[in-house]
Write a structure and sequence with these properties.
Pfam families: Dimer_Tnp_hAT, DUF659, zf-BED. This is BED-type domain-containing protein. InterPro entries: DUF659, HATC_C_dom, RNaseH-like_sf, Znf_BED. It is found in: Nucleus. By secondary structure, the protein is an alpha/beta fold. Among the domains are: about 80 residues, no CATH class; about 35 residues, no CATH class; about 150 residues, Nucleotidyltransferase, domain 5 (2-Layer Sandwich); about 200 residues, no CATH class. About 50% of the residues lie in helices and about 5% in strands. The protein contains 28 helices and 8 strands. The chain has a 5-stranded mixed β-sheet with strand order 6-5-4-7-8, with helices on both faces. The protein has a 3-stranded antiparallel β-sheet with strand order 1-2-3, covered by helices on one side. Helix 15 crosses helix 19 and helix 19 runs antiparallel to helix 20. The N and C termini lie far apart (about 75 Å). The relative contact order is 0.09.
Length: about 675
């Protein structure tokens, strides 16, 4: 990119323009720069380590694209990178041509002559730039961005589209081309460019095959019904590098029994390579369970297990259905409805310093019920201040019977005590959900120990009083024994070095846990080393499939109902794989997602204060994965094999756990008078 878009005689302006444009070039992701003592710079290819001291980033791009001439081609560049470099070089050629045509159109009489020069108009300076040629109104229009943003408003494009990884590079590329650039038309975006994008993503996915062969992979599958009542089944492949979306199958015309599901999964396994597949994970429906059994019968080395995240969600559901918990949630919903049904009261609360919106639970994700209880408890003092204020007491709202019910709940200390107990009761489960639902690191090696620590944490909360903790630990034990626990979980637990060594003497840093430890220290037992790496590199959940449903819903709107399934599949294939590829550049988490040692802690987990309190299901679900939603604290001297049942008084200070769940055993619930309201 060494040529200017408009003539310029200034050496400095040429250098600055080149530097500005080159640093945004996509080739910089694959090149490093070194500066010598004499001030000269050299560029180094990250793949073949070739060094070039001239030609700039453009020459290195030719090297990566395999263009012969000024520099030899790179023989180690990944296929998807080479494809992108080739496209970028072609775009550069096209942009130079478009810029030249635009310049000639603006200056038909030559670089120095105005079209009005014969009438005495002033000449253009040779050093003038595009912005100097613009009128003051044009410069104001462009600098304000109004021209671009009006496109967003007119087309109803969500404003968070500017957060796309590709938004700024797109603007930089357009501005580098200059005036006269013509964007793609409707047909090109819909057909030609979509095909090109799919080809690029296919090269990216194919580059993962080497990883699949080295550490194995997990086949993830799940089905759903779209807004046209079609049954679609998504197939994804997990490996420690990242998840990749393979395809979506329209299963509307077939019976979703075990035999047909087996055939669909077997096709994906054959495409991936049977020897590369270690594990298969699906939801817990009977037909998927049977299909998994058939896969294991055909491929003896492939283990099937149900989705751990789904099983944990069912545990949340089971606990939420217990009478005293359901009653507590019902009471909490009365408070939330009371606040949000009265605009004046809500306005009063929103004026309080530090106020955030109260979250309300989702309909299908049962963990969000307990997030909502936590959110309500955070507002305890604000709500009590409201109902005891002169503003409320003198208002007509205080005379209303339903308001009086809500006030009695808000002023009931037992209600807030029970909310806090439930939140802490769910804390170990929430922590384990965070681990098994994380795609950034393999979670298979932590399920077995995690379930043990969940029960241990609940026992601690109730001070090891069996009468109090047994109803909850029994629910967890039944789900674990009858549904989730499989041999691969036991094997992963045994092979995980975190649990083979004394915690006080074993380093628990990320670079030496799990499969990484076996790579570094397992060379003396090569066969066991290979087995351990294969098992510990797998995921325990198919949540990646579930998170993809929202992608389908966004792309397959009513306006796109005429799209055939193949084009829908291509759109999702490109969209989802690009999001998976780039999400590691935009990670929000600063905690270690595999922090199993804190699972049994029951301290108060919190939601991220910086997150807007959107009252919808998707936002509530996202809170499970946002930074800060559950604090991860270090536990010194914690052991992975804790058998001490005489743990002393570890109940949370100030909580009355003795009567929780047994309101009639000692003290009647203060809000029992409203049981039938």
């Amino acid at each position: 990119m060494e040529s200017n878009l408009t003539p310029s005689s200034g050496q400095d302006s040429t250098t600055n323009s080149q530097s500005t444009r080159s640093k945004i070039d996509l080739a910089w992701e694959h090149v490093s720069e070194e500066r010598y003592a004499n001030g000269r710079k050299a560029l180094i290819c990250l793949y073949c380590k070739k060094i070039t001291k001239g030609g700039g980033i453009h020459r290195m791009k030719q090297h990566l694209a395999g263009v012969k001439g000024d520099i030899g081609p790179c023989k180690s560049v990944p296929p998807d990178v080479k494809f992108r470099m080739e496209n970028s070089l072609q775009e550069f050629v096209n942009s130079k041509k478009a810029a030249q045509e635009a310049y000639e159109c603006r200056n038909p009489y030559g670089p120095n002559v105005s079209q009005f020069e014969g009438d005495g108009a002033k000449k253009y300076s040779r050093s003038s730039t595009f912005h100097e040629e613009c009128t003051s109104w044009e410069r104001s229009y462009l600098e304000s961005g109004y021209g671009g943003w009006r496109f967003f408003y007119d087309a109803c494009i969500p404003t968070n589209a500017v957060n796309s990884f590709y938004f700024k590079p797109m603007l930089d590329a357009i501005s580098a081309i200059g005036p006269g650039y013509k964007g793609p038309n409707y047909h090109q975006l819909r057909v030609n460019l979509l095909k090109d994008a799919k080809k690029e993503v296919q090269l990216l996915v194919d580059s993962y095959r080497a990883i699949w062969a080295k550490v194995g992979c997990t086949i993830m599958g799940d089905g759903w019904t779209d807004n046209r009542q079609r049954t679609l089944i998504n197939f994804l492949v997990y490996c420690p590098e990242r998840i990749s979306f393979v395809k979506s199958v329209d299963a509307s015309d077939i019976v979703k029994d075990a035999t047909n599901l087996f055939q669909l999964f077997d096709e994906v396994i054959e495409w991936v390579g049977p020897l590369n597949v270690v594990h298969m994970v699906t939801d817990n429906a009977a037909n998927y369970v049977a299909a998994g059994r058939l896969i294991s019968q055909k491929h003896k080395h492939i283990n099937w297990s149900p989705c751990a995240a789904h099983c944990l969600n069912l545990i949340f559901k089971d606990i939420g259905k217990m009478d005293h918990v359901a009653e507590l949630v019902r009471r909490a919903s009365k408070v939330t409805i009371f606040v949000y049904n009265h605009v004046a009261l809500l306005s009063w609360l929103r004026k309080r310093e530090g106020w955030t919106e109260i979250l309300r639970p989702g309909a299908t994700r049962f963990a969000t019920t307990f997030i909502a209880l936590k959110s309500l408890h955070d507002h305890k003092h604000d709500l009590q201040a409201l109902v005891t204020s002169k503003f409320f007491v003198d208002s007509r709202y205080s005379k209303d019977y339903k308001s009086q019910v809500a006030v009695s709940i808000i002023l009931d200390n037992r209600f807030w005590n029970d909310c806090l107990i439930v939140v802490n009761l769910m804390s170990p489960l929430m922590r384990l959900l965070r681990i098994v639902d994380c795609d950034e690191r393999p979670s298979m090696g932590y399920v077995y120990e995690g379930m043990y620590r969940v029960r241990l944490g609940i026992k601690k909360l109730f001070n090891y009083n069996k009468r109090l903790y047994k109803p909850y630990t029994e629910i967890i034990k039944q789900r674990w024994d009858q549904q989730l626990k499989k041999s691969i979980h036991s094997a992963a637990y045994w092979l995980n070095p975190c649990f083979q060594y004394d915690q006080e003497n074993f380093c628990n840093k990320p670079n030496v846990i799990g499969d990484e430890w076996w790579r570094l220290h397992g060379y003396s037992a090569p066969h066991l080393q290979k087995l351990a790496i294969l098992i510990l590199s797998q995921t325990a959940s198919s949540s990646g499939c579930e998170r993809n449903w929202s992608v389908f819903e966004r792309i397959h709107t009513k306006r796109r109902n005429r799209l055939e399934h193949q084009r829908l599949n291509d759109l999702v294939y490109v969209h989802y794989n690009l999001r998976l590829k780039n999400r590691f550049y935009n990670k929000k988490r600063i905690y270690d997602p595999i922090d199993y040692a804190c699972i049994d802690e029951t301290d108060f987990w919190v939601v991220d204060d910086d997150q807007p309190a959107e009252l919808d299901v998707e936002e509530l679900e996202n809170l499970l994965y946002e930074e800060g939603s559950i604090p991860i604290n270090e536990v010194e001297g914690s052991s992975s094999h804790i058998d001490d049942e005489d743990g002393g008084d570890v109940a949370i200070e100030g909580l009355d756990v003795e009567n929780f769940g047994f309101p009639n055993a000692h003290v009647q619930s203060p809000y029992s008078n409203f049981q039938n309201e």
